[in-house]
Write a structure and sequence with these properties.
Blueprint (H helix, E strand, L loop, with lengths): L2 E2 L2 E2 L7 E5 L6 H4 L16 E11 L2 E4 L4 E4 L10 E3 L6 H4 L2 H14 L7 E10 L19 E10 L1 E3 L1 E5 L8 E4 L4 E6 L4 E4 L2 E3 L5 E10 L3 E2 L1
Antiparallel strand pairs: 1-2, 3-13, 4-5, 4-8, 6-7, 6-17, 8-16, 9-13, 9-16, 10-15, 11-12, 11-14
Bound molecules: fe (ii) ion.
């Protein structure tokens, strides 16, 4: 039996994995990132965001009722212990086959329990020649969940936005990469801290970085 860090293969789910999800044609997602409400919980208007939660039943995606997003201050020193509320994902987006493919890529890769709840954050970070966009204003952090999936939808006229993973005790990232559109990074939140570097425009016009961040459990409650 092969072992990873002394844990047998049977016992560990995974540490992190980078996948290219070829079944997803990204064009179908792009229009849904254009009319996103600004995230009111951080300073500056550079992050816009929607959030919904789902479970999977066989081949079906089941959307759960609207809920509040809550992270403990232990995990999010900036916005922990605050109930945050965001607009739901567009219903036309949720109906897309590519959206279902994305959720299943996440649940299959993480081998989630059939009843597992999945939070789907749709996030656009914007930047301009005068203002950087900061995908992780809380700094290097954990989300306080079990599994995280970061799926890159688009990088339009930006530099930076490099995603890093860290083990708890090391200062240097053990993984460091710009996630290109179509790539899904799966992370065991118990094993790694994560961070994404700020973005700035590639030329003197604004730029955007569009992602879906999936987590299980969802960290949403009624
Ligand atoms: Fe995070």
């Amino acid at each position: 039996m092969q072992t990873v860090r002394g844990i047998t293969e049977l016992e560990y789910a995974f540490l992190f994995t980078l996948r290219k999800v070829n079944s997803i044609k990204l064009e179908g997602f792009k229009q849904f990132f254009n009319d996103m409400p600004v995230d009111p919980y951080i300073k500056g208007n550079y992050r816009s965001r929607r959030l919904s939660r789902f479970t999977v039943n066989g081949n079906e995606l089941i959307k759960l009722p609207h809920g509040y997003f809550y992270q403990s201050k232990d995990y999010n020193p900036l916005l922990g212990d605050i109930k945050r509320e965001f607009a739901e994902l567009d219903s036309a987006l949720i109906e897309l086959d590519i959206f279902k493919n994305l959720i299943f890529a996440f649940t299959d890769s993480c081998k989630l329990h059939p009843e597992a709840e999945i939070g789907v954050h749709q996030i656009r970070i914007s930047c301009s020649p005068d203002n950087l966009g900061n995908p992780a204003p809380e700094g290097i952090h954990r989300d306080g969940t079990d599994f995280i999936g970061i799926f890159s939808v688009d990088r339009d006229n930006i530099q930076g936005g490099e995603t890093h993973l860290y083990t708890a005790n090391q200062e240097e990232p053990i993984f460091s990469k710009v996630l290109n559109p179509g790539e899904l990074l799966l992370v065991n939140d118990h094993e790694f801290l994560h961070f994404t570097t700020p973005i700035k425009p590639g030329n003197n016009t604004p730029g955007t970085r569009d992602v879906f961040v999936l987590t299980s459990p969802s960290l949403l409650s009624d």
